[in-house]
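[[Sequence with tokens]]
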Amino acid sequence: MVQVQSHIMERATDFALLADRLEKMASSIDKTKDDATPGKLLQLAAKTRGVELNIAFCGHFSAGKSTMINTLLGVPLLPSNPIPTSANVVKIRGGEKAARVYTHNNGVLTFDPDTEMEKLKQFAVDGDTVEWVEVSYPGTLLEEQTSLLDTPGIDSTDAAHKIATESALHLADVVIYMMDYNHVQAEENFNFTKTLKDRGKPVYLVVNMIDKHIDFELDFDSYKESVEEAFATWNIQPDGIFYTSLAEPDHEENQYEEFRDMLKRLIRQREELVSKTVKDAAEHLIEEHVLALRRDNQAARQEWENRLEECRLDGVDGRDPEQVAQALQAAEQADSELSSRVEKARKLMEKELGSLLENARLTYFSTNEAAEQYLESRKPGFKMGLFFAGKKTEEEKQRRQEALLADLREKTAGNLDFHFKELLAKFPEKFELRDEAYHQAVYATTIEITPEFLASQVKGGASTREYVMNYCADLSNGIKAEYRRAGLGLIERVTAMLQQETDKERTALQERLRVLRELAQIHGRLKQLSETEQAAGQRLQAILREGA
């Protein structure tokens, strides 16, 4: 006995814990964005805390739901008319006699089930002022913790009836879907039952009024086979199918008793069923909450999606976030390259010019010999001959100067000037530029090697071999310095042309970048919306599973 009580307490604790989590889920939801799900979660929590089994009867209004429930209970608690009966959900449970009507504006009204049932039935068909009708009645197959829910017909033209049915399904642990014998293969039956099965609900089909069957037109086994095949075609696997007739209880195909016995078995499995279906219902309510958030965000989402449609760019589908991200990355890379393009080009040209000048050899042995002769002629006291020495000395100085100039000019022309002009002339082509004036300016560049230049490089000192070599090095460096100055001036012209072209390209690119950044921002906002919605669902999942 102790073990049994311990087990019961453990199960009770489980249900209490689950109910606490459902209530916590409800309180965590922002009601301004979803005013329906918190209430449903609280209803589910109350049902869970009481371990209440709810068996919902759904189907067409003409399928005989109310009559079936009255027959099962053995008490005519529900109105049975050839018109849509319940306009809202009617709950019938076991327990002491009581009847309550939950209204939208006037609170809870109470009635005596024995003396005021007709008045109560009037409220059952009033969908405008009544939210919920509940009847407790003893002596039926129902226990105090077991309820039958009679829902409005799903084929009703009144949208409020459909809402009432759908709003009660989260509380249903089992769904009995009833159909008129002649309307089994209506598309609405398939759609509704598939929705229920997709939500994990146990669904039993009841084909009622089989007394309408005419055997000589089609044998009953073939009829049953056609029903099963029709649901299988829709990929619907009901938990059971029962064929019933209340008008002809003795009909040989009537499975009313089997159906009633099945309900009794379900009632005996109350705790097991409630444990599973409550969790499934909570999972579905989480999905409903996420959908509610999506509806709340729909206006903003639609506005941003419309903006995506308006933004047009060649080669980019603005609706595709991956394409936009890739195009933006490429455009930003291109802009970065353009921003540093001119400076990189300048450094490249200066480097190539420097390499050319460094590798150009302007002085050879002949140059050294001519330089030594030239330097000797520059010494004080230098003179030639005895007679007419002044004239001969000047002539010799002139000859030695011309010899050095000729040697330097020859070496410079062959080893530097030609290569200098070839290099500088090709610089614009490296950057896809064309400028004939620049080309002409390159080939018109002239670096004069003058007597004044030779004299400017002379330094005082003894006329040694080392002195001569240093003098030749200074001549070479001086000539290269002039070529460097001219080259840098030409490079500046190329740089200016490149800057002008780059500015044009960047101006065009900036507009593309502006549009891409706007598109990326919109996709970021859309992603943030989706992530917020997803996070809300994940938060509720964490509460449901871990209480966190």
DSSP finds 15 helices and nine strands in the chain. The first strand starts at residue 53 and ends at 59. The chain has two domains: 2-299, 321-532.
